[in-house]
Each structure stands twice: as structure tokens, then as C-alpha cells.
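Re: [ENG-882] Designed sequences occasionally contain unexpected residues at chain ends

Forwarding the minimal case from QA. C-alpha cells:
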């Protein structure tokens, strides 16, 4: 079977079973061990029987066992970097790349002339903390998670990608000992009883669900953050597209004099809130 025929076969099956066709195409490309340009230039190439079998097995895992494609492959791309992922960590999302991009722009504008301490709360795979470490010049990056299994994944990513992040276990601020210029968090924000796709349920629930209304982690962080922030500092959150006004109200409850900027993602969904104190954000 030619590569083009095999690709069409599984794209049709993905459509039939209401699966993510793009994810299936990406999985086939990665299993073929080709770069995108090479993959599409070799559509008329015959596929080996061993590769056909590997793709069939992977598709069945995705379709029948509802295992996310990234877990089948064992990795996901984030901000141009290849991150190890497994069922102990949340799969990095595109909107989180936008959060990191915004943080880096704020860093360049308000902090670029000084040594900066950054804290990533609930780091998971380390995608936020390691990327910030790789993309900043003079930043010292710490990252926490309540899960030791997640921290093992994050440490591997830090080592493989050449980051310089210090990881430690902490339930939000419980083991944090210093103050920071930038605190970043992408907390679990799905309300406890909200329905989600079954493949998503294969990700760690502790990284998905944020209490009854999805706001509990934000209240915890905001209620304690002042104790761990420098006089000039930033808090950056990713959150549900439905919680923008509620997040803003929580910020105003604990930071009466802060500058609050909220931004949409590329899909025009309310996804990010930035809290500036001491002259950060205008």
C-alpha cells in the first residue's frame, strides 16, 4: 500500500468514528519517522508491512482504547520543542503556547534589564517552565507540582531539552520559600461535573478538574500570592473561556491596586489573565 492510500484510509476511519483527523494524520507522519516536507513528498512511496501494522495498532489504541495520540507516541510539541508526555501529565495545548508567548513579551518589556525569578505552579510536563528557561536570558526558573510522577517527566524534559529549571514538590505555595518577579499558572479549571471527551479523561484528573466551579485553584493562588511576589511582579493565568469575569473578580478581591489585562487566544476565546503590580502592565 502506498503512503497516500494508507493516509486516506485512516483519515476516512477517523471521520467515520468522529475522531480528530488532524491528530490521526500527525500520528501517521510521526510513526513514519519523517519530517512534514518529506512525508508529503513521499505520498507515492510503498509502506512496509511493519509500518502498516504499527499504524494499525496505534489507530486501534486511539479509537478503541481512547488513548490520546500524544500518549501513544510518547511526546508532544510545544513552542517548537519536543516534550515527553505520558498519562501522568497534561498534554500541552496550543493556547498555553500563547500564554508563554505573552509572558515572554511582558518579560522583554518590563524585566529584561534584570535577573528575574520565575515560578511555574503546577508544572506538569514542564512545558511552561522549561520553555521559559530556554527562551529567557537572565531568568532563574523554579517549578512545582503536587505529583512526584509529573515532576519526573518534567525533569526528563528539562534534561533532554537543556533547560535550567529547579523542580520541587509543592501543593501550590506549600513548599515555596522565596519571592518571584513572575508567577505563571495553568491550573486545573474544568468544573468537577462538566462532561469532557473520553480521550481527555485519560489525562490525570488532578490536572483537569478545579473543584465544583473550576475556580478553587485560582482562589488558592490569588489568596496567597502576595507572600511570594516581589514589589514589582506579574501573575499570569490560563483559564476557561467561560471564567474570564469570575477570574477578574477574584483578582480584584485580593489585589485592589493591580493592573489587570485579559486576552483572547487565536480562536477569540477568553483564555488569559495577567495581573501586574508595582508598575508592571499599563
Amino acid at each position: 500500500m502506498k503512503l497516500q492510500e494508507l493516509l486516506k484510509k485512516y483519515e476516512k476511519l477517523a471521520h467515520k468514528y468522529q475522531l480528530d483527523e488532524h491528530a490521526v494524520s500527525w500520528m501517521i507522519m510521526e510513526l513514519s519517522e519523517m519530517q512534514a516536507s518529506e512525508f508529503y513528498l513521499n505520498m507515492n512511496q510503498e509502506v512496509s508491512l511493519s509500518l502498516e501494522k504499527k499504524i494499525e495498532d496505534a489507530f486501534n489504541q486511539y479509537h478503541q482504547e481512547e488513548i490520546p495520540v500524544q500518549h501513544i507516541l510518547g511526546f508532544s510539541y510545544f513552542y517548537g520543542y519536543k516534550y515527553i508526555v505520558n498519562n501522568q501529565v497534561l498534554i500541552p495545548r496550543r493556547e498555553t503556547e500563547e500564554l508563554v508567548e505573552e509572558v515572554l513579551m511582558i518579560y522583554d518589556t518590563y524585566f529584561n534589564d534584570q535577573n528575574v525569578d520565575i515560578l511555574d505552579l503546577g508544572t506538569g510536563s514542564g512545558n511552561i517552565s522549561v520553555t521559559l528557561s530556554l527562551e529567557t536570558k537572565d531568568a532563574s526558573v523554579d517549578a512545582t507540582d503536587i505529583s512526584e510522577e509529573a515532576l519526573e517527566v518534567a525533569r526528563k524534559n528539562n534534561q533532554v531539552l537543556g533547560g535550567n529549571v529547579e523542580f520541587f514538590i509543592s501543593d501550590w505555595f506549600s513548599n515555596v520559600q522565596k519571592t518571584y518577579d513572575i508567577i505563571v499558572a495553568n491550573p486545573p479549571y474544568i468544573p468537577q461535573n462538566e462532561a469532557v471527551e473520553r480521550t481527555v479523561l485519560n489525562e490525570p484528573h488532578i490536572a483537569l478538574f478545579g473543584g465544583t466551579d473550576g475556580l478553587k485553584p485560582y482562589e488558592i493562588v490569588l489568596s496567597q500570592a502576595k507572600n511570594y511576589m516581589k514589589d514589582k511582579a506579574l501573575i499570569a493565568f490560563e483559564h476557561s473561556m467561560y471564567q474570564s469575569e469570575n477570574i477578574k473578580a477574584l483578582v480584584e478581591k485580593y489585589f485592589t491596586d493591580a493592573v489587570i489585562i485579559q486576552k483572547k487566544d487565536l480562536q477569540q476565546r477568553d483564555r488569559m489573565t495577567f495581573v501586574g503590580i508595582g508598575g508592571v502592565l499599563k
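QA comment: On inspection the terminal residues look reasonable. The chain has a mean pLDDT of 91. Proposing we downgrade this to a documentation issue.
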